[in-house]
Amino acid sequence: MRIDIITLFPEMCEAVLSESIIGRARQSKAVEIVCHQLRDFAFDKHRRVDDAPYGGGMGMLMMAEPIALCFENICEQLGTRPHFIYMSPKGRTLTQQVVREITDSYENVCILCGHYEGVDQRVLDSLVDEEISIGDYVLTGGELPAVVFADALCRMLPGVLSSDECFELESHYGGLLEYPQYTRPEVWRDQTVPGVLMSGHHANIEKWRREQAITATVRLRPDMLSQAQLTDKEKAFVSQLQEQEKDSL
Question: What CATH code is carried by the domain that includes residue 227?
């Protein structure tokens, strides 16, 4: 997959996406990420990409033409049109399911980072395919959401992590939160590692982890249960946990 990011602060995105797992994945060509300075597509000597909104109001608005020129340049580089996403608090909320949908559906993704009071609506109407939000709050710019989104996309791609299990067993991937995990020492400040994890009995360990994942989801994110694939026995276990939760109130 290639991910193009249109931004006023490419160095800000590069600082994060050049490090750790994503940085190594870029070096190994498992994923390609290209950050584009939007001001390079401005058409005046001051490299302005914003102007006052019609109708008045606070702040400035990102103009349509520089964004369109940058996006068209990306299309020319790729020889095809990428799926164009605007990071916006008005968009659908980013979830692991959304990440899976996009990585399964598109080879090329372009992310637009907004600033000021947003972008000219005509860009959204004519160029952008969808808007995505990382949460119900507003940040000073779209770079942090874009980096979060790009990181989530990259982790799902072949060759980025050591194996698919690295993300398949994590929170949200299968509709459940992740089970608790422990490392050495066996006893830390009078707290011990659950005995089942040191039993060497792999079937019992997997059963314990599955039950712990279900328990954590019931208690912390019950809204996720509708998406989880549960056996009849596990559904009965959920009902039992829910009754216990009610009794404890």
Answer: 1.10.1270.20
209 and 135 in a common domain: no
Q: How far apart are CA 161 and CA 178, in angstroms?
A: 18
Q: What is the span of the domain harbouring residue 202?
A: 187-248
Distance CA 123, CA 208 (A): 51
CATH number, domain containing residue 88:
3.40.1280.10
For residues 142 and 208, state if they share a domain.
no
Separation between Cα atoms, residue 154 and residue 70, nearest integer Å: 23
Per-residue pLDDT tens digits for 158-210: 999 976 654 455 555 678 999 999 999 999 999 999 999 999 999 999 999 99
Q: Say how many domains are in the chain.
A: 2
Distance CA 63, CA 127 (A): 13
Beta partners for residue 4, in sequence order: 34, 110
Give the dihedral sign, CA 114/82/107/16.
negative
Q: Measured between alpha carbons, how far is 45 from 52 in angstroms, rounded to an integer?
A: 18
Could you read off the pLDDT of 30-59 as tens digits, one per residue?
999 999 999 999 988 889 999 999 999 889
